[in-house]
Amino acid sequence: MPEKNKETAILLLSCPDQKGIVAEISSFIYQYSGNIIHSDQHTDEESGSFFMRIEWELEGFEIPKQEIPGAFGVIAGKFSMDWELHFSSVIPRLAIMASKLDHCLYDLLLKNKSGELRAEITLIISNHSDVKPIADYFGIDFYTFPIDKENKFEAERKEIELLQKEKIDLIVLARYMQVLSENFVELFSNKIINIHHSFLPAFVGAKPYHQAFTRGVKLIGATSHYVTKDLDNGPIIAQGVISVSHRDSLEDLIQKGKELEKTVLSRAVKHHLENKTLVFGNKTVVFD
Amino acid sequence: MPEKNKETAILLLSCPDQKGIVAEISSFIYQYSGNIIHSDQHTDEESGSFFMRIEWELEGFEIPKQEIPGAFGVIAGKFSMDWELHFSSVIPRLAIMASKLDHCLYDLLLKNKSGELRAEITLIISNHSDVKPIADYFGIDFYTFPIDKENKFEAERKEIELLQKEKIDLIVLARYMQVLSENFVELFSNKIINIHHSFLPAFVGAKPYHQAFTRGVKLIGATSHYVTKDLDNGPIIAQGVISVSHRDSLEDLIQKGKELEKTVLSRAVKHHLENKTLVFGNKTVVFD
Amino acid sequence: MPEKNKETAILLLSCPDQKGIVAEISSFIYQYSGNIIHSDQHTDEESGSFFMRIEWELEGFEIPKQEIPGAFGVIAGKFSMDWELHFSSVIPRLAIMASKLDHCLYDLLLKNKSGELRAEITLIISNHSDVKPIADYFGIDFYTFPIDKENKFEAERKEIELLQKEKIDLIVLARYMQVLSENFVELFSNKIINIHHSFLPAFVGAKPYHQAFTRGVKLIGATSHYVTKDLDNGPIIAQGVISVSHRDSLEDLIQKGKELEKTVLSRAVKHHLENKTLVFGNKTVVFD
Amino acid sequence: MPEKNKETAILLLSCPDQKGIVAEISSFIYQYSGNIIHSDQHTDEESGSFFMRIEWELEGFEIPKQEIPGAFGVIAGKFSMDWELHFSSVIPRLAIMASKLDHCLYDLLLKNKSGELRAEITLIISNHSDVKPIADYFGIDFYTFPIDKENKFEAERKEIELLQKEKIDLIVLARYMQVLSENFVELFSNKIINIHHSFLPAFVGAKPYHQAFTRGVKLIGATSHYVTKDLDNGPIIAQGVISVSHRDSLEDLIQKGKELEKTVLSRAVKHHLENKTLVFGNKTVVFD
Fold first, then answer.
1. pTM for the model
2. How many angstroms from the chain centroid is the CA of residue A262?
3. Do C193 and C277 reside in the same domain of the chain?
4. What is the rounded distance in angstroms from the CA atom of residue C171 to the CA atom of residue C192?
């Protein structure tokens, strides 16, 4: 962790692997008097891809913030990079979508309040009004969009409009019980994080705890992943498990699972908010 | 754990749930001056079944060992019990089936040697001769039954003959790479334990580490289960997981998995050897 | 878990180990038409002590609730038992003591609200007023007793008075930063649960995360225990750990630790509330 | 992991933190056509120290292996680095010291045999002859140096002579029951790895499982660390824990602990053998 008060720049990038990338980037930073405080890289040998996260202090860095993209663009072009530049001073704007279950919602709100999740939770969307009092307690704008078969398209249109108007950087599905349309998902590619209450790819789809109970597993899991158009099949960011036994009823599984869902979801959200995740194909690199 | 030197009797039973079972059994033991040292029970509410494991010291017990089955049979009949009676003085006879991979084989042999797994490892069967030197080192009889499509039926016939002749109580498939026939499995119902190198039911079938690598999971698992005619679908006895990341190659997954397979398989075998497992439907009760 | 609607009786007992205890108790229950739904026992061989937790349905049980203690007392006397009788219909009255840190407080309140912790959280006591808004949000009575060297005796006197008046069954110290006096502790023997933010007995006393950071450990822990007059030395109910590395600053340790503290404390409280804990000497039996 | 067949160079270094280190090192490698395949760094803010591990392929690198130290020495001097250069083609020479317990010894030998631990296990030293047959089975030279109060100095002298003559790179104490003298430890500074059978700093010294049993902990641990002159107080490389309960006897703790000791020790040894550990003060950086 950098000292909390010092502003940093973070580059997240991927490109075809080749010699000289690290040298070029680190020399660029050094040349303008930047002090690198974190650097992590990964090479995927199958695809021949190179991934990097590099963070440096802006204090004393000789290129003004707004000019860094232009200056770095030259290097990026040379190596055919996909890249993002983030500043630690910019707090991401986060929207939570929830239904009736409130454990993940509370957990995100409390971790945000205590400073563990560095985001501005801008708004909460729900297809029900049950969790409105929670939004009120935390002073977060709350929007209800009831959804049924008929109005789904229209409801999503309004949600998208709202999310775009509010310049939302990350959408977290906190046990949100509606499947988002392909259009919705594509508009927020790699910007929607979901929690699935099983150890994916086991128990895909509905009622995974019921499935786990029926199968008689000795561990139950939770999986947090980016949402793609293929249900429960997006790039996995974090997973966790907890022991269960024959003594656990279905209700016990659900209860134990709640604790796990909170932990796994907030871990994934934290990784994303700290710009530590990169998606490649259907996998993630998590620079933790 | 009882004192190692005191001989005990262990009853494992299941029956329809009803009042008075515990009272009847514990009174039976007390009436003949037995000292109960462990008692564990479970009621499955879905099926209305009652399960019990009860262990008492034989020292001072007024019914001779060979007459206990007859005496207890009266109670068993009254409650329509399925039951097994074991004596701690009887060391189960265990056969290991292995192919070329030796990590689980070594692990079982070493844990047996050090007293952690209380069994007499009577023989090792393989479809190859690679692991014969290991059998020799530990002084265990070794049998090779090469298997191909043509001879499978005949080879299994000989294996079964051997296992029956040697009065084998438990067969452990220590990464044995052949699928046993339905006939084989039924002859040794709930007496064959396998280790599957994934977190079942994720990644059923062949090459689960390859599947896990392709899916980009953040945890890999291992599952030990009783073998039934449905491949990888038998009652689960034990499961474990270990963290992996984008840095882990397929080879790393395989290596990390080995450690896990050993741990999970030996845990399941230990539970069985200590008469702590009961199968019901496609699940297990593990009195650990 | 019993069906939620059926009322049960739970006996928690300990006595010198001897033959016939289980038979006597189970026959007592059966004789009056009780249906045992859980029974767990343990024998501590060192001390020759027997421990038991037995739970049966009251529906159809032929002794009225208020007469059970008298009826069972005869058996208890015969075996010199220490025993407690609980009814599942009686919701324990719980008091939380907190200071400024609110993560454990929130966690207990939310788990209580969602039904995971079955208690009536009667009141919250703090030596500060910071967490009062939380008490208000959850509608719990809140009492501030500021404490300094001079008034400690007097403040505790008032707290004790309040706790006794409110017939509190369990006091949970949710990161409460004051050391309770010997007198206080003895008045609520085995009825005060604390969370210590380290893997006891490592890092006893103040600032355990600082100690852990300085020592360079690779795991940090949390320990929930009954409070005794010896600081951080009471009977342990639950422990947990989480991985850390050289990358984790002291602040990261504190943050990771919070998650752990919540989990471990609520698990211990849950065990107690479900009458699953028994203290013997400086250890616990946890019938989980 | 690099492709197994490609030879790599690995630099491990530490120096006072300052701007330009990464740029200088990566440019040095790039300038001579090296392809960086791994790079990891850490800054300890307390001490203002910078740590790095960087690995590049030697194929095509324009400086001959034997001249790399001279060439890099210029950069190292400029930044006042402590540094080590390793080549993946050089297999470290490892000595194991053991007493009578053989579980960690077997584990290291088997993992070495299967390729999981890349080392040449050159010799085994013991103060007893019990484990000699194991050395024989694996074809490793075995030396017995019985140790008592009188001969300790002389025995250690011979051990040191042997270890130096055999150019041992790493000494692993696999539950070796003798305390090494200060002189011995200093001669092999940061080259001796021990496994302590507890979660340090809890239960320092003799009989930690007895201590853990008496304290009634719910988790037991194991700690692998570099040996320093302060017993059980050296820099920690890896730690692990496993759950225990009131049902576990002291003997059960010892047995469960064995599994843990093997896992934790081999993990630490693997980190060291892959040149992923750096010691600073009484802590380690583990680039895993």
1. 0.95
2. 14
3. yes
4. 5
Put simply, the answer to whether C36 touches B22 (Cβ < 8 Å) is: yes
Beta bridge partners of D192: D171
CATH number, residue B59: 3.30.70.260
Which residue in chain B has the smallest CA separation from A211? Answer: B201
CA distance A144 to A99: 10
Q: Do D22 and A39 touch (CB under 8 A)?
A: yes
User: Whole-angstrom Cα distance, residue D274 to residue D288?
Assistant: 10
Do D81 and D172 lie in one domain? The reply is no
Query: Cβ–Cβ contacts within 10 Å for residue A129, how many?
Result: 12
Measured between alpha carbons, how far apart are the two ends of chain A, in Å? 11
Q: Where among D87, D109, D135 does a domain terminate? A: D87
Say if B245 is an interface residue toward chain D (CB within 8 Å). no
**Cα D198 to chain centroid, rounded:** 18
Catalytic residue (choose from B102, B130, B232, B252) = B232
β C93-98/C170-173 pair status: parallel
CB atoms within 10 A of CB D236: 23
B232 is a catalytic site residue: yes
Whether A69 and A202 share a structural domain:
no
Size of interface C-D (CB pairs under 8 A): 85
Tokens encoding B166:
């040697």
Same domain, A227 and A278: yes
Structure tokens at C142: 């809140």
The token pair at C177 is 């930063």
* Neighbouring C-beta atoms of residue B281, cutoff 10 Å: 12
Whether residues D133 and D74 fall in one domain: no
Same-domain pairing of C61 and C119: no
Any CB–CB contact under 8 A between C87 and chain A?
A: no
DSSP state of C279: E
For residue C78, the enclosing domain spans 8-87
8 Å CB contact of A284 and B216: yes
The CA distance from C259 to C263, in Å, is: 6
A-C Cβ pairs (cutoff 8 Å, strict): 25
Phi, psi of A159 (to 5 degrees): -60, -45
Q: Quick one: B77 and B106 in the same domain? A: no
Give me the phi and psi of A242, to 5 degrees please.
-145, 145
Picking from D40, D67, D87, the residue at the C-terminal end of a domain is D87
The CATH number given to whatever domain includes residue D130 is 3.40.50.170
Task: Supply the angle between the helices C250-273 and C103-113 in degrees, to the nearest 10.
Answer: 40
Of the candidates B184, B206, B185, B186, the one whose C-alpha atom is nearest the C-alpha of residue B197 is B206
Residue B56 covered by a domain: yes
Confirm whether A1 is domain-assigned: no
DSSP label of C140: -
Query: Whole-angstrom Cα distance, residue C56 to residue C234?
Result: 31
B139 and B125, same domain (yes or no):
yes
Indicate the residue of B199, B247, B282 with minimum beta-carbon distance to A216: B282
Chain A contact set for B42 (CB, 8 A)? 246-247
Q: Cα separation of B9 and B38, whole Å?
A: 10
The answer to whether ipTM exceeds 0.95 is no
Q: Please state, in angstroms and rounded to a whole number, the distance separating the CA atoms of residues C4 and D255.
A: 39
List of chain B residues whose C-beta atoms are within 8 Å of the C-beta of residue C55: none
DSSP state of C179: P
> Looking at the 3D structure of chain D, how many domains does it have?
2
Provide the residue-wise pLDDT of chain C in tens; the chain has 288 residues: 444 568 999 999 999 999 999 999 999 999 999 999 999 999 998 889 999 999 999 999 999 999 999 999 999 999 999 999 999 999 999 999 999 999 999 999 999 999 999 999 999 999 999 999 999 999 999 999 999 989 999 999 999 999 999 999 999 999 999 999 999 999 999 999 999 999 888 888 889 999 999 999 999 999 999 999 988 899 999 999 999 999 999 999 999 999 999 999 999 999 999 999 999 999 999 998
Considering only CB atoms, A216 lies closest to which of B218, B235, B288, namely: B235
CA dihedral C10, C12, C18, C23 (to 10 degrees): 0
